[in-house]
Amino acid sequence: MKAAAFDYARPASGDEAVALLAAGAGMAKALGGGQSLGPMMNLRLAQPDSLVDLRAIAELRGCRRDTAGGVETVLIGACTTHADIEDGRFDDPSRGFLPRVAAGIAYRAVRNRGTVGGSLAHADPAADWVNAMAVAGADILVQGPAGRRTVAAADWLQGAFTPALAEDEIVLGVRLAQWSAAARWSYYKFNRKTGEFAEAIAAFVVDPALDLCRGLIGALDGPPRVIADARGLLAALQAGDPAAADAELAAAGLPPGSYEHHIHRAALQRAAAQLKGNA
Amino acid sequence: MNDKPTSPLALTVNGREVSAVVEPRTHLADFLREQQLLTGTNIGCEQGVCGACTVLVDGVPTRSCITWAVSCQGAEVRTIESFDEDETMAELRAAFTAEHALQCGYCTPGMLATARDIVTRLPQADEARIRLELSGNLCRCTGYVGLVRAIGRVLEARRQRNLVEA
Amino acid sequence: MNAPLAETRAQGIGVALPRKEDDRFMRGRGGYVGNIRMVGMVDVAFVRSPVAHGRIRAIEKPEGCEGAVYTLADLEGVQPIVANSGLAGFKCSAQPVLAGDKVRQVGEMIAMCVADNRAAAEDIAAQVFVDFDELPAVVDMLAARRAGSALVHEEWGDNVFLETFIDADLDDIRSKAAIKVSRKLRTARQSMAPMEGRGVVAHWDHRLGQLIVYTSAQMPHINRTGIAGCLGLDEGQVRVVAPDVGGGFGYKGILLPEEVCVAWLAIKLGRPVRWLEDRREQLTANANCREHDYDITAYADGDGRLLAVDCEATVDSGAYSSYPFSACLEAAQVGSILPGPYKMEKYRCRTWSVATNKPPILPYRGVARTGVCYAIETVMDAIAVQAGLEPWEVRMRNLVLPQEMPYDNITRKHFDSGDYPECLRRAVEAIALPAVRERQRRGEADGRRIGVGLAIFCEQGAHGTSVYHGWGIPMVPGREPVTLRLTPDGVLEIRAGVHSHGQGMETTLAQIAHEVLGIAIDKVRVLLGDTGITPYSTGTWGSRSIVMAGSAVGVACKELKARLIKIGAHLLKDEPAMVTWQAGAVVGPHGWKRIADIARTWYLQPQLLPADVDPRGLEVSTTYQARRDSGTFSYACHAVVVAVDTALGKVELLDYVVVEDGGVLINPLVVDGQVYGGAAQGIGTALYEEMRYSEDGQPLASTLADYILPGATEVPAIRIEHMETPAPYTEFGQKGIGESGAIGSPAAIANAVNDALRPLGVEINQLPITPRAIVEALAAASAASATQGRNA
Ligand SMILES: Cc1cc2nc3c(=O)[nH]c(=O)nc-3n(C[C@H](O)[C@H](O)[C@H](O)COP(=O)(O)OP(=O)(O)OC[C@H]3O[C@@H](n4cnc5c(N)ncnc54)[C@H](O)[C@@H]3O)c2cc1C
Ligand code: FES
Ligand code: FES
Questions:
Q1: Mean pLDDT of C525-539
Q2: Which domains does chain B have, with CATH numbers?
Q3: CATH 3.30.465.10: which residues of chain A?
Q4: Is the distance from the beta carbon of residue B55 to the nearest atom of ligand 2 less than 6 Å?
Q5: CA gyration radius for chain B?
Q6: Which residues does the UniProt record annotate as the domain 2Fe-2S ferredoxin-type (chain B) (predicted)?
């Protein structure tokens, strides 16, 4: 199938892009790598009147390191590709966490073009960045007609394919605190076939320096379940008590006894074990 | 249908500078096949999954079915038709035919684009890595046995040569 | 005196020669239908039914585009597609090429829209409005058989295309059998999913007065017959060209309504018309194979010796009987080949070919054999468990023995040759069974469970007239034709009516010519796929081409050689008895004449020919039939080791061995490729591929992200071992093996998974074995044992 007709614009600045999206009155869409939009438009599941290609906006490329209030952060531009991150062509604050996640997304040819910002804006609950950024405690930087704002990645998904992003807003980038040398992380993605979207995601990030011990149950029907203080859960899982996860799994909306409950519990156990192994 | 929006487009295709007018909805694969008459790039799904349409855009493998031609303004695109002078490709082709890495040939142009990326980017790749890197290119005919062997053979030959040269 | 330059490099039968066809594909010069460009060519998009079952109340063409939209009402005089089975009791379905008053599956074509390019044609199609009265959909084949089900074809009164019954009195068996095992088994509906979809380009050639139809097809001559019939043209007015075909597997062995529509439109518009199937159309409108249900019982004595098999098999045939294989080939095959390679006293089998609101079924690589092998091999494992034997031991006790060959089995299949027990023995050895059992006992550090599974089967291939007549299909294959022609420069053209869609026929037929004539491979041109230049054949399907066309080439080359010798001897001034044929030349005591010398003489220097020269010249047309048309029986044993992750339900294939006997191998490289590729497809059948439908008949996968095909990480490094028992009835002893790989793998993998899960009290009886199936089965088993524990 071929896409329905649309107009195309390639603005050079974020302001211009936002103005174009606003002028589209809901029928204009931002274009990142097109790796989610392309298939949907080819199937005519999405039929925007116009696409606003963000890839020529210099600000959305590359990374910026800042220190504010004693915290060192890195802003990763929205148009950074999955392959950039996989290959370490960016300023990595995550001690290898983000490259590992990137390498497990889709296939190399898709990673060469797909972007972090696009993936977040697409807001597929089974996608990797929405989950990885949530467990990493990242902030998502957004620009709209009213200016810029920041959304915690953990609050990004309002529902499946529904990000905390208005139709005339764009994602500028993702901001992460620099993790300390003592940081440890794990990320377990269960899918039926290499490169496909996850059926279950579980992850833990621990950084004593940032007072961080977060866990995540992802690839749910809706937003991921972020466990802000995962110390108890981690300890129990690592001690070999899978039932300890049941309360969180229930809170994630997974009916006990269901297939989904089983695989998410197994993913959590493995992520916990991986973290132990990383120690 | 000329009531549909169009955009000007200038890019390099197989070393040749091309200017064209395209409908923005035309994906790169259709642009190459229908407008440039470069039919070597096959279309297998237009859903980004099968990899048959893989071409090099600015040197890296890209799904041409989910890349709009207009978004390739200024890009360098290389298709299977452009590799006749390429030594790596010559080596891969020899290995593909020796290992029976193709049957119907439909996945082959995309496979070769990906294979070339593997042998140049990952000189140390082992069988497991070859399989992983190849997993985005579907082949319904060969069961991948010949493909994995052919790529492994080229990698091994290159490693041997580098040892000798070193 | 020097001998003629002998061709030193081996190129004949048995040589693993790289393929002649590879180069063009590796340079992006494959000639697929989608690559054809013609001046003025327009594109078609079809409006397809969004509902599985409904009555069409009205079709409204979009304002301003009326002339670009065609419905059945416009296609005056075009006949529907009819494929009647010759078996008694068959109920006929007529499939209009565009829907009439009713649609019977999602994706059924309702209108044809034409524009300058596909995107624009889809724009028009999106505006066509169809008003439906939705009817209840018939989705499940067993429910469809029940009284009171909604009806796909009301006039039938039920939903059964055909019921067949092979009866036997099993009373005595029941009373004496120490072992009785019963299983209910299901295989999913699949899409064959060649990487290239179907596609058609048609135009009218005024000079020839011919409709030219390029189509991605396995059986161009059959398509020609079908297209001419539907359009009311003489066959001479239709030429079908199947150019390079990007994979077939049975998917392209059909007369398509799209072909008829596009051909009609090309005539109507007087310009070239193109339709290229996209993946969404393929998956949603054309998932069309493999869906079987078995209710099977086997009886054995205490030693695991089979006494009888009793089976009720249902095949979901979809909405229409497709041409030429019909809705009933699949079930007819089930009935006749379910006994597999085994001996038994009694056999009883009832089959139903059931109509549902799904795409018409087509024979996918292996056809019914894949499901049948899964059924019988599941049962053999069940007997092994009951008898306390290793699965291979039970099989060994029941296989036909080499000294019994040729052997007529219980359904009168004539097994031609081979050593089935040896095949099994070698597979068991190659998979290192004792080591696997030991590993199982030790357990895995990561908690996964190891299992090992076997499947042994024989594959009837290249079966001919009597067999297909017996199966009732409207197209019965006969003698296979081939035409050879030498050009004046000594190049041999082989024109064959079979086709190649990856099987390497351009190479293997040339190898056969080399074997007989000693002609260099690069001096042989194999011409296929074009009804204008090849003799009428039923085409490539049923693992028949290398046996039928390959043998025909051999026979024709021998005939040609005799004529060449006669002319050559005359040119050498020798008696034919004094000369020999060596490396592509006639060699006498005083010199030699190469093929090219003789060819030049025939065409350009006829004054030098003997007076009594064979007037048929250097062109040979012949037809071939094996000495028996009951088919070749290749056979194989697949052995596989799996690791099952019980927490996630994921199956990894750790080792995979195929021991295969394809008779004399023409080109081992090509044969291995067929086996690898088939096995990979079988892995898809076993673990990944299923087209599920909602209760109202909506297909639930429309992309390759939902319909999972195995990739390089899902297929292991399969190992193949060969046996080579020559076929007794074919020209070179070759057997058909094209489908083999896809037959054994689902059964072997299912047996391996169940071997791994058996200690947990779980057996999975459906394909594919998904993570969900495994996890849910394990959860159910542990819930059951928990209840039992409480109750105890
Ligand atoms: C075969 C295949 C397999 C895949 N597997 C995975 C997988 O395993 N895991 C995974 O996470 N993803 C997977 N993906 C998706 C892939 O990662 C995409 O690259 C990603 O989801 C979208 O990024 P993009 O830049 O291509 O966005 P686009 O496709 O361009 O856009 C996606 C959406 O985001 C919007 N958008 C894009 N950029 C911005 C921005 N900066 N600001 C605001 N809105 C924006 C668009 O309007 C659109 O709505 C897969 C894709 C394919 C084709
Ligand atoms: S055609 Fe582009 S990925 Fe399949
Ligand atoms: S060779 Fe046919 S799909 Fe790969």
A1: 95
A2: 7-82 (3.10.20.30), 84-160 (1.10.150.120)
A3: 58-177
A4: no
A5: 17
A6: 7-83
Lowest mean pLDDT: which of A96-110, B24-38, C471-485, C708-722? C471-485
Q: Could you give the CA distance from residue C298 to residue C228 in angstroms, rounded to a whole number?
A: 48
Spatial distance between the Cα atoms of C115 and C68, rounded to a whole number of angstroms: 7
CB contact under 8 A, A55 and B136: no
As its CATH architecture, domain A58-177 has 2-Layer Sandwich (3.30)
First CA to last CA distance, chain B: 60
Q: Which two tokens stand for residue C769?
A: 């074995």
Percent of chain C with pLDDT over 90: 93
Please give the pLDDT value at position B166. Answer: 60
- Pick the residue from chain C with its C-alpha nearest to A41: C119
pLDDT < 70 positions in chain B = 1-2, 165-166
Task: Name, in order, each residue with C-beta under 8 angstroms of C304's C-beta and a sequence gap of 6 or more.
Answer: C179, C383, C384, C386, C387, C389, C393, C394, C397, C398
User: Per residue in C274-313, pLDDT tens?
Assistant: 999 999 999 999 989 999 999 999 999 999 999 999 999 9
As a whole number of angstroms, the distance between CA B103 and CA C741 comes to 15
Gap from CA of B52 to ligand 3 centroid (Å): 9
Model confidence over C441-465: pLDDT tens digits? 999 999 999 999 999 999 999 888 8
Distance of CA C101 to the CA centre of its chain: 33
Any B CB within 8 A of A110 CB: yes
Residue keyed to tokens 């299983």: C183
Which H or E run includes C329? helix C329-337
ipTM: 0.97
Q: Please state, in angstroms and rounded to a whole number, the distance separating the CA atoms of residues B116 and B92.
A: 7
Instruction: Render pLDDT for C64-105 as a digit per residue (tens, 0 to 9).
Output: 999 999 999 999 999 999 999 889 999 999 999 999 999 999
CATH class of A184-277: alpha beta
- CATH class entry, domain A7-53: alpha beta
Q: What is the mean pLDDT of residues C489-495?
A: 98
H-type helices in C111-256, by residue range? Answer: 118-127, 141-145, 171-176, 220-231
User: A250 — contact with chain B (CB < 8 Å)?
Assistant: no
Give the pLDDT score at B1. Answer: 44
Pairing of β A7-9 and β A50-53: parallel
The answer to whether the CB of B77 is under 6 A from ligand 2 is no
DSSP of C350-369: EEEEE--SSPPP---TTTHH
Cα C544 to chain center, whole Å?
Answer: 10
> What is the amino acid identity at position A184?
R
**DSSP H or E stretch at residue A268:** helix A259-278
Note the ligand closest to the C-alpha atom of A34.
1
Tens-place pLDDT, residues C669-722? 999 999 999 999 999 999 999 999 999 999 999 999 999 999 999 999 999 999
Task: Please provide the distance, in angstroms rounded to a whole number, between the alpha carbons at the two ends of chain A.
Answer: 49
Task: Report in angstroms the alpha-carbon separations of C335 from A51, C369, C371.
Answer: 57, 10, 12
| Over residues C130-140, mean pLDDT | 98
Q: How far apart are CA A155 and CA A157, in angstroms?
A: 6
Of C650, C705, C710, the CB nearest to A196: C705
Contact B73 A10 (CB under 8 A): yes
Question: C382: closest CA among C293, C449, C298, C295?
Answer: C298
Render pLDDT for C43-68 as a digit per residue (tens, 0 to 9).
Answer: 999 999 999 999 999 999 999 999 99
Catalogue all structural domains in chain C, each as residue range(s) with its CATH number. 22-29+479-624 (3.30.365.10), 193-286 (3.30.365.10), 412-456+633-792 (3.30.365.10)
Q: Which amino acid is at C59?
A: I
What is the location of CATH 3.30.43.10 in chain A? 7-53
> Largest Cα–Cα distance in chain A?
57
Output the pLDDT for position C1: 42
